[in-house]
Write a structure and sequence with these properties.
The chain has about 375 residues and is mainly α. Helix content is about 50%, strand content about 10%. The chain has helices at about 1-10, 15-30, 35, 55-70, 75-80, 85-100, 105-125, 135-145, 150-165, 170-180, 185-195, 205-210, 215-225, 255-260, 265, 280, 305-320; strands spanning about 50-55, 200, 205, 230-235, 240, 245, 250-255, 320-325, 370-375. A hairpin with a 2-residue loop joins strand 2 and strand 3.
């Protein structure tokens, strides 16, 4: 039932409209010059007209703070001020959870997990009158769990896993979209021009961004194709023959979608290469049975609509309000998709560990931005 409540929250309808509005409003408040200076590195003073920040730090902080607050409300920050740090540690070590490594081989993973469970246990230990700003999903799923005698810790464990599911992809997808744009100035300018009408006098026009920006949509879909690493899991209910092999009843079958996304028979000889116009040139590809970034069947990700709105809004606001370029830092990584004067190289994809969603860059392959307010935008305090 918990998953069903999540669907009721995230599929199109009144609940989805409410959470999307809150999500976009929160992003709007965070993507301003005074907020960006919080992420500055030590290499440039915050009083400068531009600062250097980590792209991943920026997207992670904005998206995780937004989802945390629009789901569980403000009181969780008082109880768990280090919630985001615990989650990032959990994300970096979840491959150990996937492989079910014993505690003595995965102390860091268990420590992060226990910190997250403790945070949500404390949250649900509060009186409901203190957390009236929780959303529909949090309220209804808690009531359902309480009805079957779940205590605070039990509810905390369930919501810790939901927190993981909710926060696994959007910040990394946004990171990769910006990384590709920054390493291709022509692509960056095309996207900037396309999304410009979507921010009018500082106000977002979300329907315009999601319905009338085909280049942005193509970039989004291409990043999903290359960077999503989720899998289809199915339980074999009766002996089934696939490719001459008999799958016995009672076994589980895993189909990695990433292999489908890199199939040259579907995507062509350049299947492993980034092509921002791939889905623009062939709109049928987004409906291909070999394109499954959000899963399929009854387990199709219900958060896909919210994630798309939030990601597009973040990108449009950032490009409207800031001058953004690669900072002159030397980092390891792959050769940039387009030649660039910056010494930064394109971040490599970390394929060394299993991932249940979007792939992260290799540790140490940072994308450092040099960012400042656009001349047309007055630095405004929000």
């Amino acid at each position: 039932m918990v998953e069903e409540y999540q669907r009721h929250q995230l599929l199109p309808g009144r609940n989805m409209d409410e959470i999307a509005k809150n999500f976009v409003c929160y992003i709007d408040k965070m993507v301003w010059w005074q907020q960006v200076q919080v992420y500055t590195s030590n290499s440039r003073p915050a009083i400068s007209t531009s600062v250097d920040i980590s792209l991943m730090d920026w997207t992670t902080d904005v998206f995780l703070r937004a989802t945390t607050q629009i789901y569980w409300g403000r009181s969780i920050w008082r109880l768990a001020p280090n919630l985001l740090e615990s989650f990032q540690k959990w994300e970096q070590t979840t491959w150990k959870y996937v492989f079910q490594l014993p505690r003595f081989l995965s102390k860091d993973m268990y420590e992060a997990r226990d910190q997250l469970i403790a945070a949500f246990t404390a949250y649900f230990g509060q009186a409901k009158t203190i957390r009236t700003d929780a959303n529909y999903f949090v309220r209804t799923s808690e009531q359902e769990l309480r009805d079957i005698a779940f205590n605070d810790n039990d509810v905390g464990k369930v919501h810790m896993l939901q927190y993981w599911a909710i926060n696994g992809n959007a910040h990394k997808v946004t990171f990769w979209m910006f990384a590709y744009m920054l390493h291709d100035p022509q692509l960056l300018e095309r996207i900037r021009q396309e999304v410009a009408p979507g921010v009018n006098n500082g106000t977002l026009n979300v329907p315009y961004l999601t319905e009338q920006c085909p280049r942005l949509e193509s970039l989004f879909l291409e990043v999903l194709r290359l960077k999503m690493s989720s899998s289809l899991m199915r339980y074999v209910t009766e002996p089934t023959v696939v490719g001459g092999k008999v799958l016995a009843r009672g076994h589980n079958v895993m189909v990695p979608y990433r292999q489908l996304h890199l199939d040259e028979d579907v995507w062509g000889k350049n299947a492993s290469a980034f092509d921002p116009d791939r889905f623009l040139n062939d709109k049928q590809l987004s409906r291909s049975s070999s394109f499954r970034p959000f899963g399929g069947g009854q387990h199709l990700c219900p958060g896909r609509f919210l994630a798309r709105q939030a990601i597009f809004s973040f990108i449009a606001l950032a490009l409207a309000r800031f001058e953004i370029d690669l900072a002159p830092h030397d980092t390891s990584g792959e050769k940039s998709p387009k030649c660039q004067p910056s010494t930064q190289r394109f971040p490599r994809t970390d394929e060394s560990k299993p991932a249940l969603g979007a792939l992260a860059p290799v540790a140490g392959d940072r994308v450092m931005l040099r960012i400042g307010p656009r001349r047309s935008e007055k630095p405004e305090h929000r």
